[in-house]
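Marked as duplicate of an earlier ticket. Keeping the data here for the record.
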Amino acid sequence: MISALMVATAIAANAQVNVNVNIGMQPAWGPVGYDYVRYYYLPDADAYYDVNSRMFMVFANGAWVSRRALPRPVDLYHVHKIVINDATPWRRHTVYHDRYITYRGRPSNVVVIRDSREPKYMRGNNGNANGHYNINRRDNGRGHGGGRGHGNGHGGGHGRGR
């Protein structure tokens, strides 16, 4: 009986729980409800946003490259954002593009982090929660806290196949 208890304790001690959480790194324009996001696919821009590096992955001159801003302005609060936790989603771009192209021009009722009243988004979120995330080209999409957010979470997207 004691040896069975010791084995059970050893098994329980070796069990590992791997929980990924990056709520504080997600941009203010990201949809609520995700404790962890690695990338957002943006059908409207046919690009990806890397949450960890805060960079966009865009297809330019025949290759996927990192950029601080999208090549053309996109209102990130009002376009569809698809959460993708693939390590290198651009390698499967055709799959994601084909799956989400139908979001082009379709409204969405998704609440973005900026507009959330949930306490988990109020802990600073790098200055973005309930703040203003300026998407104009002058600040390259860096967030600014302090303001109150506005927006309805509607949007649509489109993309180009690779």
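See parent ticket for discussion. The two ends are 62 Å apart (CA to CA).
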